[in-house]
């Protein structure tokens, strides 16, 4: 079973890297980009075959390591 | 006074830290590898050095904070042990939950490597007793991810409980409240981005950093 975790900065946390990307897009002529937020995608290949159990396990992994919940939110996607 | 320096793959200030500790205490620290599960007995202080542990993969300090030895370090701190984290060591202590907040990429996205002026926030700690509160000292920084972030409530608590050990005079990284170093609730854990171990000898250009180790030596020998 595969899982995909999206880690993003919480709203309200300033994202200097996203801001730099936004400026660079403007410099390339892409107008109208009002905001850029940069995050991470983490793909996991799991032994688990039960989707609910897989999600519980991956959420625990996020809380313990994959995300820093002081500044980051995460989303878990389970794909068969 | 018995001290130890924790060494991770990618630590690069462990030797500087050892020299600073030996100079202040007269005794060489134990160098403890991250895969060790236990600490030497009878330690008074553990130092987590600067560097780029585990290549800064995932988040700075995140992997190191989950290494086997860190369980023992957290337990040592919870029992009232003294822990100093410098630069990457500060990031590790935050990731291990021993200090609040988070350290993000510098706001200007630049790696900052130079001597900076700091204001001493408090002399009420075993790390800062040799300084005067409000005194300006010079200590070098060298980091890419030292932008201290915390909620308004955490910042207020740090201020109200006099736990901001050092502030930048000229903020190099966007840290909230110009914070360069903070103390734990029991004042026995200090995390700071600047490197006191790099400025503790006149031959290196100054000794302001050395006074932090002198503070520790006098506090912990008395204890």
Automatic annotation (TrEMBL), chain A:
Keywords for this protein: ATP-binding, Cytoplasm, Ligase, Nucleotide-binding, Purine biosynthesis
Major subcellular site: cytoplasm
EC id: 6.3.5.3
Organism whose genome encodes this protein: Oceanomicrobium pacificus
Catalytic activity line of the entry: N(2)-formyl-N(1)-(5-phospho-beta-D-ribosyl)glycinamide + L-glutamine + ATP + H2O = 2-formamido-N(1)-(5-O-phospho-beta-D-ribosyl)acetamidine + L-glutamate + ADP + phosphate + H(+)
UniProt function note: Part of the phosphoribosylformylglycinamidine synthase complex involved in the purines biosynthetic pathway. Catalyzes the ATP-dependent conversion of formylglycinamide ribonucleotide (FGAR) and glutamine to yield formylglycinamidine ribonucleotide (FGAM) and glutamate. The FGAM synthase complex is composed of three subunits. PurQ produces an ammonia molecule by converting glutamine to glutamate. PurL transfers the ammonia molecule to FGAR to form FGAM in an ATP-dependent manner.
Pathway: Purine metabolism; IMP biosynthesis via de novo pathway; 5-amino-1-(5-phospho-D-ribosyl)imidazole from N(2)-formyl-N(1)-(5-phospho-D-ribosyl)glycinamide: step 1/2
Keyword Nucleotide-binding: yes
GO BP annotations, alphabetical order: 'de novo' IMP biosynthetic process
Enzyme class: ligase
Family stated for the protein in its record: Belongs to the PurS family.
GO molecular function per UniProt: ATP binding; phosphoribosylformylglycinamidine synthase activity
Subunit composition and interactions: Part of the FGAM synthase complex composed of 1 PurL, 1 PurQ and 2 PurS subunits.
Claim: 4Fe-4S is one of the keywords in the record: no
Name the UniProt record assigns to this protein: Phosphoribosylformylglycinamidine synthase subunit PurS
HAMAP family found in the cross-reference section: PurS
Cross-referenced InterPro entries: PurS, PurS-like_sf
PANTHER family with a match to the protein in the record: PHOSPHORIBOSYLFORMYLGLYCINAMIDINE SYNTHASE SUBUNIT PURS (PTHR34696)
GO cellular component annotations of the record: cytoplasm
One Pfam family linked to the record: PurS
Localisation per UniProt entry: Cytoplasm
From TrEMBL, chain B:
Record has Cytoplasm as a keyword: yes
A GO term for molecular function: phosphoribosylformylglycinamidine synthase activity
Pfam name, any one: GATase_5
Subcellular location: Cytoplasm
Enzyme Commission number, as recorded: 6.3.5.3, 3.5.1.2
UniProt xrefs under PROSITE patterns: GATASE_TYPE_1
Name this protein carries in UniProt: Phosphoribosylformylglycinamidine synthase subunit PurQ
Species, as recorded: Oceanomicrobium pacificus
């Amino acid at each position: 079973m595969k899982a995909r975790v999206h880690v993003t900065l919480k709203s309200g946390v300033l994202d200097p890297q996203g801001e730099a990307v936004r400026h660079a897009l403007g410099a390339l002529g892409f107008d109208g980009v009002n905001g850029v937020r940069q995050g991470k995608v983490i793909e996991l290949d799991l032994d688990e075959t039960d989707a609910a159990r897989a999600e519980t396990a991956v959420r625990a992994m996020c809380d313990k390591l994959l995300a820093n919940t002081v500044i980051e939110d995460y989303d878990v996607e389970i794909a068969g | 006074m018995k001290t130890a320096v924790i060494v991770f793959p990618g630590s690069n200030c462990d030797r500087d830290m050892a020299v600073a500790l030996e100079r202040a205490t007269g005794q060489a620290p134990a160098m403890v590898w991250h895969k060790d599960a236990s600490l030497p007995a009878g330690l008074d202080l553990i130092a987590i050095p600067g560097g780029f542990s585990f290549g800064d993969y995932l988040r700075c300090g995140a992997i190191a904070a989950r290494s086997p030895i860190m369980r023992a370090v957290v337990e040592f701190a919870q029992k009232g042990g003294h822990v100093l984290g410098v630069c990457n060591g500060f990031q590790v202590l935050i990731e291990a939950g021993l200090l609040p907040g988070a350290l993000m990429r510098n706001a200007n996205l630049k790696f900052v490597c130079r001597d900076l002026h700091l204001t001493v926030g408090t002399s009420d700690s075993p790390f800062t007793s040799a300084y005067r509160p409000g005194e300006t000292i010079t200590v070098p920084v060298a980091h890419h991810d030292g932008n201290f972030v915390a909620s308004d409530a955490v910042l207020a608590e740090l201020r109200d409980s006099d736990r901001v050990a050092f502030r930048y005079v000229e903020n190099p990284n966007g840290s909230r409240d110009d914070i360069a170093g903070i103390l734990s609730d029991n004042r026995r854990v200090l995390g700071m981005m600047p490197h006191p171990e790099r400025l503790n000898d006149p031959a290196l250009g100054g000794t302001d950093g050395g006074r932090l180790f002198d503070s520790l030596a006098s506090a912990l020998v008395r204890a």
